[in-house]
Amino acid sequence: MLTPNGKEYAQKIPREELTHLILRLLQAWKEPLSHFNQHHQELPDDSLSKAKQISSMVHELKTGVEKVTEKARFSINSLNGMTPSEAAGLSISNEANMMSDSDFIHCFRRDSNKVQSYLKILKCRIMPENSC
Amino acid sequence: MKQKLTSSLQIILLLALTAVSLTGQSYPGKPKIIRCRSLEKETFSCWWKPGSDGGLPTNYTLFYSRDSEEEIYECPDYRTSGPNSCYFDTNHTTPWTTYNITVTATNEIGSNSSDPQYVDVTSIVQPDAPVNLSLETKTSANTMYLWAKWSPPPLAEARANSHVYHYELRLKPEEKEEWETISVGVQTQYQVLRLQAGVKYVVQVRCMLDLGEWSEWSSERRIQIPNGESPPEKPTIIKCRSPEKETFTCWWKPGSDGGHPTNYTLLYSKEGEEQVYECPDYRTAGPNSCYFDKKHTSFWTIYNITVRATNEMGSNFSDPHYVDVTYIVQPDPPVNVTLELKKPMNRKPYLVLTWSPPPLADVRSGWLTLEYELRLKPEEGEEWETIFVGQQTQYKMFSLNPGKKYIVQIHCKPDHHGSWSEWSSEKYIQIPTDFRVKDMVVWIVVGVLSSLICLIMSWTMVLKGYRMIAFILPPVPGPKIKGIDTHLLETGKSEELLSALGCHGFPPTSDCEELLIEYLEVEDSEDQQLMPSHDSGHPSKNTKMISKETDSDSGRGSCDSPSLLSEKCRECRTLSSTLQTQDIRDVQENTGGKTSWETQCIASEQKILLLNNETTKSSTWPAAQLPNTQPPMFAYHSTVDAHKITLNTTNVNIAPVLVGNEEKHQSQYPITETVHNNMEKQREMENLHSKTDQTTAQVKQNRPNDKSPFLNPKLMDYVEVHKVRQDEQAVLLKHKENSGKTEKYTVPGTSKEYTKVSTVVDHNIIVLMPDSCIQHTSVSQEPAMETSPNLQQGQAEKNMSYCLTAPSECKRETSGSEYMDPSSFMPSFK
């Protein structure tokens, strides 16, 4: 899944596409996270609860972004976007199954950082007055 | 037989042995003491080697004895030095003694002892080898030398400082066999010169105490001597940083260059890619650094970075360094730190601190979000107070002490994954003390107002001080004489008085003569009303009486007579006393003579002032004071003033005395005596009286009276008026002898007789009326004299009657006389 790797790229992308990208990312990680939680019951309770918390947060974040986009009346071709995202999600989940735990966590961390950065850019684009 | 026995014994022995050997148990073997050693001459240890244990558990015990002693000790410590050892600590170690040590192995079957070992501690000293040997090559002045360092052997008991070790170092090239030994001395380091370049050396070191043996050699250390031509050492990457999350820079530290110029190249590869790139920019960030600009910076990818050092001899790679730019962000410090003091209306002023993010950070687009933190401390303080501000770029400070100086710094950090920036430059805050200025203003205003109030109060005090004092300290009331209207006297309206008295055309001057005249009135108790008492509307009866008296004093002799003088004095006293009583305060205060009496006494009557002063000051015997007080006054000068003064004084003095002693008839005597004594004064008084009378009578002929004859003491012998009682009786004592003199005493130019005694019927006021008719006077006087002790009113009346007629004449005569014409008030007597 291709994501912009730099600030300029991220800024060049139109808002709708950026939003779409975010949503795709969030969607993609939904499955692997749940899979991870299922297969790692042996973790200590703290870590396990943390993992569950993270997956729920991801879900909430996705929902929130969707709502924001609806309110902002972005034209999201959700239908168009979903399919690739699902595919991307599957690919990611396949990869996630393959990779080790540390790699998994590392990848997740990076992708969440991506999402965060994209969201911030989006925020400052939509509403530039708030501490931007 | 014997052979059989021996053989049987042997067989038995063999059997026993085999039995023993079969069972495998026997007494232990003989242990052997391997070694005894002391590390520092204060403790030592012995190790032994056990023999066979005979198949059974064996105990080993060490026994020792010292020198030639018989006593045997056992090992104190079996453990410290390990198994099969005995450790003698300092308490059990005595140098210069020989220990006889044996080890005994014991098991169930038997025991076996080792051979004794004779140990002298001092001979078994051998320290441990030195430790921590480090080697380093250094270059100085184009020569390479080896610098070796080590540490002395550690000791269990921390007493290493007291031991001085001697060291020895040996080295050899790695491939060679022979060692080069160098004696180092007591130092723990050494520099080796004369090294072969490019050779790898092996180094060892050992030590020794001042007595004993050398320690073992330390472990080997190897070092490669740089050849001057060798590949460089491996560089190391220090850090990589991104200031704004768009570019980043890496820095490395080079190793030794091996004697040749070395090039450094940075090579990197990205995650997932095989291709290796070289650093795009070696310069922007300075030496030994690599700058990755925006194009070459990718986020969320891991960089694999290595540095390669290359020189003629070869190259060397550093360890790889993995970098993800997202996590290496360290921004620049915030800029534009500004302070603003805001003063809201109803609140305390506060400080607003604002700053802006570093210029490179792109906060606008949200790409990089920064969090800020500031710290402040008072200028003299030591600890910083750190305040996390968050993402806002301003901060309000409320709780700073006014007047103090603070130091403020700010730094920032990416909101996630990053490190804090450096602190911004110090910013000083000086809290203003405006509000204090306001307080000062208030205090200044208060001070000014209070000072004004004080000034005003002081002015009022000054201006109206007298009144204030009068209010505070009321004047002491003196004896008040009824009938005398002091105010009238004060006003000096002689016209009124005179009109009351029936006299007209009095001189306007209101001298003390008037007063004198008035004072001549003799008063008892309360009433001092003379003739004028009958008169109504007379403001001051006393004055009238006095005038009468003066008028009655046809001759000056009467005035000069002590009695008359006394009368006059009495009157004077009375009057003066009354006046004094009323105006004592004034008199007292106004030394200048502003009493009513004095006021009446005109300027010429300065003496009156004096008199007044005297009288005021005198209480009972002013008369007595007269001579004392005014000797100069009694300079017999033909000066009116002098006379007046004297008279005044006398009057003043006497009058109060009279008044004061009204109730004391006896006092009158002394008064008269004093009067006698002060003949001159009396005369003067009389003169003054006469003068005053004249003044009251409008005619002042005191001046002529001032002539010397007037002051003849002889005249003093005339009449003495004594007051015997407080009753209305007045005693006039007249000296017969004076009677004759009265004539003489009469003022030249005035043939007036002495005085006529005209007593007030009602009161004891004796009015001495100047009687031109000497005869009458004499006649009148004589009976008076006869009845000196008691003056009968009847006689007085007679006299008066006499005088009634006379006055008409007397008037004429008295026109030029000093005395007042009693005709005016003659009827009043009736």
From TrEMBL, chain A:
<dbReference type="InterPro" id="IPR018116">
    <property type="entry name" value="Somatotropin_CS"/>
</dbReference>
<dbReference type="GO" id="GO:0031667">
    <property type="term" value="P:response to nutrient levels"/>
</dbReference>
<dbReference type="InterPro" id="IPR009079">
    <property type="entry name" value="4_helix_cytokine-like_core"/>
</dbReference>
<protein>
    <submittedName>
        <fullName>PRL protein</fullName>
    </submittedName>
</protein>
<dbReference type="Pfam" id="PF00103">
    <property type="entry name" value="Hormone_1"/>
</dbReference>
<dbReference type="GO" id="GO:0005179">
    <property type="term" value="F:hormone activity"/>
</dbReference>
<keyword id="KW-0372">Hormone</keyword>
<dbReference type="InterPro" id="IPR001400">
    <property type="entry name" value="Somatotropin/Prolactin"/>
</dbReference>
<dbReference type="GO" id="GO:0046427">
    <property type="term" value="P:positive regulation of receptor signaling pathway via JAK-STAT"/>
</dbReference>
<keyword id="KW-0964">Secreted</keyword>
<comment type="similarity">
    <text>Belongs to the somatotropin/prolactin family.</text>
</comment>
<dbReference type="GO" id="GO:0005615">
    <property type="term" value="C:extracellular space"/>
</dbReference>
UniProtKB/TrEMBL annotation, chain B:
<dbReference type="InterPro" id="IPR003961">
    <property type="entry name" value="FN3_dom"/>
</dbReference>
<dbReference type="GO" id="GO:0008284">
    <property type="term" value="P:positive regulation of cell population proliferation"/>
</dbReference>
<dbReference type="Pfam" id="PF09067">
    <property type="entry name" value="EpoR_lig-bind"/>
</dbReference>
<dbReference type="GO" id="GO:0043235">
    <property type="term" value="C:receptor complex"/>
</dbReference>
<keyword id="KW-0862">Zinc</keyword>
<dbReference type="InterPro" id="IPR015152">
    <property type="entry name" value="Growth/epo_recpt_lig-bind"/>
</dbReference>
<comment type="similarity">
    <text>Belongs to the type I cytokine receptor family. Type 1 subfamily.</text>
</comment>
<keyword id="KW-1133">Transmembrane helix</keyword>
<keyword id="KW-0677">Repeat</keyword>
<keyword id="KW-0732">Signal</keyword>
<feature type="signal peptide">
    <location>
        <begin position="1"/>
        <end position="24"/>
    </location>
</feature>
<keyword id="KW-1015">Disulfide bond</keyword>
<dbReference type="GO" id="GO:0009897">
    <property type="term" value="C:external side of plasma membrane"/>
</dbReference>
<dbReference type="GO" id="GO:0017046">
    <property type="term" value="F:peptide hormone binding"/>
</dbReference>
<keyword id="KW-0479">Metal-binding</keyword>
<keyword id="KW-0325">Glycoprotein</keyword>
<dbReference type="InterPro" id="IPR036116">
    <property type="entry name" value="FN3_sf"/>
</dbReference>
<comment type="function">
    <text>This is a receptor for the anterior pituitary hormone prolactin.</text>
</comment>
<dbReference type="InterPro" id="IPR013783">
    <property type="entry name" value="Ig-like_fold"/>
</dbReference>
<dbReference type="InterPro" id="IPR003528">
    <property type="entry name" value="Long_hematopoietin_rcpt_CS"/>
</dbReference>
<feature type="region of interest" description="Disordered">
    <location>
        <begin position="691"/>
        <end position="712"/>
    </location>
</feature>
<feature type="compositionally biased region" description="Polar residues">
    <location>
        <begin position="693"/>
        <end position="702"/>
    </location>
</feature>
